[in-house]
UniProtKB/TrEMBL annotation:
Record GO biological process: methylation
GO molecular function terms attached to this record: methyltransferase activity
Location of the Methyltransferase domain: 60-155
Taxonomy, superkingdom: Bacteria
Lineage of source species: Bacteria, Bacillati, Actinomycetota, Actinomycetes, Kitasatosporales
Keywords: Methyltransferase, Transferase
SUPFAM superfamilies on file: S-adenosyl-L-methionine-dependent methyltransferases
Protein name: SAM-dependent methyltransferase
Length: 243
């Protein structure tokens, strides 16, 4: 799962015993060599699906990390793209990946907590990849309200969400075990490192988006395949600020 360029076991242990912000500052230089970076096939599938919803002028990558989502937005937006993250280390890596002067829309980087976004309603498209496990369920509604307030009327907030693994499968037990270990770690050690895989259930997410003011739809990401019952392995959530 990890390449030779990725973090060592010791580096991962230090990260796990740090705060969420400090942990990502530490792992940032090697993050793209870990399995935690969103795979290109997911980025490509989302790009293809969202392209038909445009056109878009300005885009926002919420919790941009090292900039994978910014790369998607640069393909979809005509004028300006903004990446926002609370980790200075991750933003430094993102800046290096998209140096000034590249062709395409202008790219801005903002260090801020997604729970208090510092933007007026200026964006036509917001997206996020792989970040929602860093927010506790009680914080999710507030996060969605912040994104809603950053979008222009008619703006879209999109993100992929995978189908849960079958109960009893290897993936099911792996994610259950990880979340259990993280809960024990956070009960015994401060500061907390918030990262959970099983706290972002689709039904709860749709309810919170609706309460935040969005009109919500789902689109199958057929490029990512189907499950044995024919249902998609992943869907794209499309939340629209109508006015």
């Amino acid at each position: 799962m990890f390449t030779k360029q990725g973090p060592t076991v010791r580096e991962l242990a230090v990260q796990a015993l740090s705060s969420t912000e400090r942990g990502y500052d530490l792992i940032a230089p090697k993050f793209d060599h870990t399995p935690y970076r969103t795979p290109d096939r997911v980025l490509d599938a989302v790009t293809r699906e969202v392209r038909g919803l445009g056109p878009f002028d300005a885009g926002l990558d919420v919790c941009c990390g090292t900039g994978a989502g910014v790369g998607v937005l640069r393909e979809l937006c005509r004028e300006r793209v903004t990446g926002v993250d609370f980790s200075a280390g991750m933003l430094a890596e993102a800046r290096a990946a998209f140096p000034p002067g590249d062709e395409g829309p202008v790219v801005d980087w903002v260090r801020a907590d997604a729970r208090a976004l510092p933007f007026a309603p200026a964006f036509d498209l917001a997206l996020s990849f792989g970040a929602f496990g860093h927010f506790l369920p009680a914080e999710r509604f507030g996060l969605f309200v912040e994104v809603y307030g950053s979008l222009r009327p008619g703006g879209r907030f999109v993100f992929p969400i995978g189908a849960p693994p079958p109960v009893g499968s290897r993936a099911y037990w792996t994610l259950l075990g990880f979340d259990a270990a993280m809960r024990v770690r956070n009960a015994l050690w401060r500061p907390p490192f918030v990262m959970y895989y099983r706290t972002f259930a689709l039904g709860d997410v749709l309810e919170d988006l609706t309460q935040a003011g969005f009109t919500v739809g789902l689109r199958p990401l057929t490029d990512l395949g189907t499950r044995p019952d024919g249902s998609p392995r992943a869907r794209l959530v499309v939340a629209t600020r109508e006015r």
